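Quick one, T. Sequence first:
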Amino acid sequence: MSARAHYWLMKTEPTDFSIDTLQKVGREPWTGVRNYQARNFMRQMQPGDQVFVYHSNCEVPGIYGIGEVVGTPYPDPTQFNKKSKYFDPKSTQEQPRWDLVDIGYVRHLKRPLSLTEIREHRDALGEEFALTRTGSRLSVLPVTAAQWKLLLGLEKK
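Structure tokens:
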């Protein structure tokens, strides 16, 4: 475990993989990230880091649960699989382009925090909170300790 835990938000489409699925399987490799900035964030992750599981592209986008990074980053095997929708012909075993981390289930939130509700707290979350910035489409985002605490506090309201 890292000396100081870090916090993240990871987006997923619940029709592909949801917090319910993570609960059932317990631990899952977070495959398919194909954005360099999001990949670089994943490369910074360490076991023990906490993760908000965010459902996107659904009726009510928002944070639905919490996961935990349970391993160090390693090459995403889907980049080498020609049958995978995440195949990357430019990746090689010697020089992989894409990494992933394994995420373990921690818990569901007491209630989902919708994107609409999160945006109501934009000022308190600060300008650097990418989820509330217009045009931000990253699937992996850093979250500060203060932002984590604020967002967790909202689930009790």
